[in-house]
């Protein structure tokens, strides 16, 4: 069975907690992490209103937190996400809950 992360980008606040948790858990040097939050925008959407969004993306250093998952725990990025916009699980189950502004990443 394949597993992945489902990220609801509508609720990501860009706090970077997922990055810090990953870096600390995996003992990675400053500037390296298994997940990185990309800033998208800002761009004007009309009437003086602006849009700014964030998109967490997995890097080649993501191990899927295999040791944590083997212990029945969530990946560290999911556990520490302050906006609770990340879910870990079987890809088929996560895909069934897909909707607008959600991104599914295979691990």
TrEMBL record:
One GO MF term attached to the UniProt entry: 4 iron, 4 sulfur cluster binding
PANTHER family on file: ANAEROBIC DIMETHYL SULFOXIDE REDUCTASE CHAIN B-RELATED, PROTEIN NRFC
Ranges annotated as spanning the membrane: none
Keywords: 4Fe-4S, Electron transport, Iron, Iron-sulfur, Metal-binding, Repeat, Transport
Native organism: Gordonibacter urolithinfaciens
InterPro entries assigned to the protein according to its UniProt record, in alphabetical order: 4Fe4S_Fe-S-bd, ET_IronSulfur_Cluster-Binding
Residue ranges of domain 4Fe-4S ferredoxin-type in the record: 3-33
Name this polypeptide is given: Oxidoreductase
Annotated Pfam families: Fer4_2
